[in-house]
Design goal:
single chain; Arc Repressor Mutant, subunit A; 54% helix
């Protein structure tokens, strides 16, 4: 099975037609649509995905059309109200799911670092304080906040 390559011009973020100039350009266009794509791919139904993601169906439909235009390939085979992934769509979906999982992991990590009960404290100190003062301060703090982690920086 071969994927269908489109010969339509690709759209810039402003809506003007132009060729893709850089990786950054395509990332800026694609990034906002990745979660929408993943939702439609999982449900294989635009209206159901829109309801689950709490966005208007028309917004989601337009985003999928623009995504296909920007990539220059058909990601979905449309059958009435349902859609199914094309070969290109399945390939793209696997990568999108990994990318979204990595973004979620990164968000969880930074939230965990900022959590006052379990987060991470960067503690900078002078060399002269390292031998006696710092261990005492850390010990006293950890007695009240045992799950907080430290990143120690000397000088």
């Amino acid at each position: 099975m071969m994927h269908q390559q489109r010969s339509e011009p690709r759209l810039s973020p402003s809506g003007d037609t132009e060729d893709i100039e850089s990786i950054e350009d395509i990332v800026l266009r694609l990034a906002p649509r990745l979660a929408y794509f993943a939702g439609v791919a999982r449900t294989e139904h635009v209206t159901r995905a829109a309801r689950e993601m709490r966005v208007p169906q028309s917004t989601l439909s337009r985003a999928m059309v623009r995504l296909e235009q920007d990539l220059g390939v058909d990601l979905f085979a449309r059958r009435g109200r349902t859609v199914s992934l094309t070969h290109s769509g399945r390939t793209f979906h696997a990568s999108v799911e990994r990318a979204l999982a990595e973004i979620e992991r990164a968000a969880d990590e930074v939230r965990a670092d900022a959590d006052p009960a379990t987060g991470k404290v960067a503690f900078g100190f002078l060399h002269t304080m390292g031998a006696e003062t710092v261990p005492g301060l850390l010990h006293a703090f950890r007695a009240e906040h045992p799950r907080v982690r430290f990143s120690l920086v000397q000088n």
